[in-house]
Amino acid sequence: MALNMNRRQLLGTLAGATTVGVLSSATAGKNTTPAILTSSVNHSFETEVLVCGGGPAGFAAAANSARLGRKTLILERYGRLGGMGIHARVWPLMGGVQSPFVKEVHKKIGGNSFDPERADLHYADILQKAGTTILLHTWVTEPVLENNRIVGVKAISKEGTIIVRAKLIIDATGDADVAVLSGVPFEVGRADDGLVQPMSIMFAVEGVADNAKYCGSEEAARATKINATETWETVTVTAQKNGELPETVGVVRTYKMGRRGKACVNATQINRLFGTKIEDLTKAELECRRQAFQVVDFMRKYLPGYENIYVSHMPAVIGVRETRRICGLEQLKREDLVSGRKWDNAIVRGANFVIDIHNPAGSGQAENQTSSEIQGSAARVKPYDIPLTSVIPQKVDGLLVAGRCISGTHEAHSSYRVQNICMAIGAGVGTVAAIALEDKTAPANVDMKKVQKFLFS
Ligand SMILES: Cc1cc2nc3c(=O)[nH]c(=O)nc-3n(C[C@H](O)[C@H](O)[C@H](O)COP(=O)(O)OP(=O)(O)OC[C@H]3O[C@@H](n4cnc5c(N)ncnc54)[C@H](O)[C@@H]3O)c2cc1C
Q: Which residue has the least CA distance to atom 49 on ligand 1?
């Protein structure tokens, strides 16, 4: 279109197009379809299992559903699979779990220290080998409901609106977008004040000296000596108090990445904002990216071995830890995790990660902060199960939920939200969906022996 137009003509065309809601190619070659954008449905698909969201949970759900012979389609709003681990550069994979599926994926992507430049292609290989159809750049916006049953979704794309009809739908959007739009009740934040865990920009640096120390948690920062009198934690808290670091940054977590001299830094954070509000997301993106450079200046000045670091990778989007959690038939609670509760209807076994609550109203961990100098510490759990009933939403049929937005309290969520556990949840949910369809039954009545045999043996 623009080839034989001057700038004024081009702007005029675009302005006109905006007012009528249609951007069309009037003068391009014979086939103009790809340039036409309308608000009516342009494309429709039919599938058995539809997975919304291509993060660790969605990818795993789609893989197992397709492996069990169900026609499966996965929709992802961005251009890559992998969720937070790829788009927000959340690294490494964390969380223990007894899952042959997760073990198999680790073998393919290099384990917890996966290569974020490539892992999304490994995920795509697994899906395509299983026969899943992948649609990227497709943002689910609306459920299609018949009474209290979801029978499809609408999504937007550069082609306009698409519609996908499915027998069962899995919401793996992290934010429970599909469930909430369908009318599933949900909870947000901690019980007393509704605050959620902070958003953060995680970034990579290079130029780290070979003898530099790495500190991946509040406890490690407390135990790591910088000189005769100071630890990583005291140096950081002093900088926080004198304004060299933002007031929300009281711990600078570093992880050694695959290549020599490369580290991943988890330090920035912004509190009291919500990861599904656009004004909050905009503020968080800008503020945390600015914080990242402040953190790098601090590291260069105070942390031995980091004098020559520079930012080598900024993520595409900010990391969102916690938004909506659906209300399911059963809710996972802190006591279930601390006691290592087992369930007969487990879709995940042996989940193991601390109760990791990045302070929604301060810095460091929300728990065990005994003074302003101490950045808290995470509570331990015993290996626990995740039951089928926590992924089946109340009120709406035809829908399952996978990943960080399943039914659990704020505290329980802070443990199972890590990627290995979310992947195992997805593997379980995809298996339940496929077997329920095969046996022509509702997910709530699925034969758990069959499900568990596929998942755990
Ligand atoms: C700053 C930060 C640090 C973290 N550190 C670690 C760590 O070190 N190790 C670890 O294992 N975990 C870590 N986590 C947690 C972990 O990354 C996430 O909780 C996990 O990725 C959740 O998996 P998920 O599949 O449920 O959701 P996500 O990873 O959020 O994936 C959801 C996917 O759905 C897509 N999507 C969303 N809405 C739509 C829509 N409407 N239509 C279509 N697609 C949609 C998204 O683009 C995304 O790809 C961290 C999280 C954050 C924010």
A: 83
Centre of ligand 1 to C-alpha 419, Å, is 8
Instruction: Check whether 21 has a pLDDT greater than 50.
Output: no
| Number of compact structural domains in the chain | 3
Task: Give residue for tokens 């980091």.
Answer: 306
For residue 56 and ligand 1, the question of a CB distance below 6 A is answered with: yes
Which of 52, 76, 78, 90 has most ligand 1 atoms within 8 Å of its beta carbon, as the pocket-test mutant? 90
List pLDDT tens digits, range 57-86.
999 999 999 999 999 999 999 999 999 999
Q: Which residue has the higher pLDDT, 314 or 36?
A: 314
CATH of the domain at 378: 3.50.50.60
DSSP E strands in 65-202: the ranges are 72-75, 133-135, 139-146, 149-157, 160-171, 186-188
pTM of the model: 0.93
**∠ CA 282-285-288, rounded to 5°:** 135
In a domain, 1, yes or no: no
CA of 322 to the centre of ligand 1 (A): 9
**Distance in Å, CA 305 to ligand 1 centroid:** 31
User: Which pLDDT tens digit goes with each residue over 293-311?
Assistant: 999 999 999 999 999 999 9
Whole domain around residue 23: which residue ranges? Answer: 7-37
Q: Does residue 315 line the site of ligand 1, with CB under 6 A?
A: no
Structure tokens at 46: 């039919």
Helix, strand, or coil (residue 457): coil
